[in-house]
Write a structure and sequence with these properties.
The chain is of the alpha/beta class. The protein has 11 helices and 13 strands.
Length: 324
C-alpha cells in the first residue's frame, strides 16, 4: 500500500516541489487548500503535477477542519508548509501571522495527537528565528533564537510546540530550519523574485527602474527543489530531530541584483536601481548563514544548485514568461 502524505501550503513555492518529489517516490499526496473561488494552480502546472494531487479543503486557522482531515485520511506523513510567509507583511498583519503560523501548528499537532498518533509531522521552521543571533557568523541547531519580526516570533512558537509534542507525547515531530531557498515559483513579493522579474522587464523595455530596500542584507540562498529533499530525509530518519538546512554560503542582495543584470547582459545596473525606504524592514536582520553539518552528516543531504545557477534559472524562467 502506498504511503500517504498531506502537504499544507500546496499552492506555494515548496509545496509543488515536495509534491512532485513524493509522487515520484510512489506516494499518494493530499494537498490542503483553503476555499478559493478560483484557486491559482500556476505553480503546480509549472511542474506538471496539477493532476497528481488530491485536494482537500481546510484551513490552518480552523481546527475543526484539520481534525476532520486527519481523522479521515490518517496520513503517514504531514508536511506543514503553510504560513503567512512574507516577513514584510507580518508587521502589518501580526495577528493573522500569529493565528496561521503559531496556532495553526498547535491545531495540527493536536489533531495528530488525538486521531492519528503514528503520523509523522514536519514543521517548516525558518532562519528568520535566529534574527540577531550571529556569534561567529553562522547559525546552527545550537544557536539561540532572537527573532526580529512578527513572522520570526510566530515561527519560534511553532518550533517549540513541535519540540514539545515530541518530548511530551512521543510523537514523531521534526523541525526543518530552512535558510532562504528560492525558485521560479517564488512569489513576486519576495525580493529575489522581485529582482529577477524586474531585471527582465527592464531588459525587455517593460520597465525603466527597479525599486528595492536594503541591498546590504546578506542571506544563505539555495534552490527550493533541493531543500524539499531534506524535508523528506528528515521524515525517514530513525528518530525525529531538528535540522538546519542551508548551503553555508552567504551573498548580499546587491550580489543577487548584479548577477541577475549580468544574466541579461546589463553591466551598468546601478543606474536602473532605486532605493525606496518603504521596502526596508522596521527591524533588519543583517546576516544569516547556515552551518548545516548535522544535515550533511546525519541525513546525507547536500545542496546541488549553486547561488549562481539559482539566479540564472530564475532569470531564464521570468524571461520565458514575459516574452510570451
Amino acid at each position: 500500500m502506498a504511503n500517504t502524505a498531506l502537504i499544507t501550503g500546496i499552492l506555494g513555492q515548496d509545496g509543488p516541489y515536495l509534491a512532485k518529489y513524493l509522487v515520484e517516490k510512489g506516494y499518494k499526496v493530499y494537498g490542503l487548500m483553503r476555499r478559493y473561488s478560483t484557486p491559482h494552480m500556476d505553480n503546480l502546472k509549472f511542474l506538471g503535477i496539477e493532476h497528481s494531487v488530491d485536494f482537500i479543503e481546510g484551513d490552518l486557522s480552523d481546527e475543526a477542519s484539520l481534525i476532520n482531515i486527519i481523522k479521515n485520511i490518517r496520513p503517514n506523513e504531514v508536511y506543514n508548509l503553510a504560513a503567512q510567509s512574507f516577513v514584510g507583511s507580518s508587521w502589518d498583519q501580526a495577528k493573522l501571522t500569529t493565528e496561521v503560523n503559531s496556532l495553526g501548528v498547535l491545531y495540527l499537532l493536536n489533531s495528530i495527537k488525538f486521531f492519528s498518533p503514528t503520523t509523522k509531522f514536519y514543521q517548516a521552521s525558518t532562519s528568520e528565528m535566529f534574527g540577531l543571533s550571529n556569534d561567529d557568523g553562522y547559525q546552527d541547531e545550537n544557536t539561540n533564537f532572537h527573532p526580529r519580526s512578527p513572522y520570526g516570533i510566530s515561527k519560534v512558537y511553532a518550533y517549540w510546540m513541535t519540540v514539545n509534542f515530541r518530548e511530551s507525547y512521543g510523537l514523531f515531530t521534526t523541525n526543518g530550519i530552512l535558510f532562504n531557498h528560492e525558485s521560479p515559483l517564488r512569489g513576486i513579493q519576495f525580493v529575489t523574485r522581485k529582482i529577477t522579474d524586474g531585471v527582465v522587464k527592464i531588459k525587455l523595455g517593460l520597465a525603466e527602474t527597479l525599486s528595492l530596500g536594503n541591498l546590504e542584507a546578506k542571506r544563505d540562498w539555495g534552490f527550493a527543489g533541493d531543500y524539499v529533499e531534506a524535508m523528506y530525509l528528515m521524515m525517514q530518519a530513525e528518530k525525529p530531530d531538528d535540522y538546519v538546512i542551508g548551503s553555508g554560503h552567504c551573498h548580499s542582495v546587491r550580489e543577487f541584483v548584479e548577477l541577475a543584470f549580468k544574466q541579461v547582459g546589463i553591466s551598468d545596473w546601478e543606474k536602473y536601481v532605486t532605493i525606496d525606504a518603504r521596502f526596508k524592514r522596521p527591524a533588519e536582520v543583517p546576516h544569516l548563514q547556515a552551518r548545516a553539518n548535522k544535515a550533511f552528516e546525519k541525513l546525507g543531504w547536500k545542496p546541488k544548485v549553486s547561488f549562481e545557477e539559482l539566479v540564472k534559472v530564475m532569470v531564464e524562467a521570468d524571461m520565458k514568461r514575459l516574452q510570451k
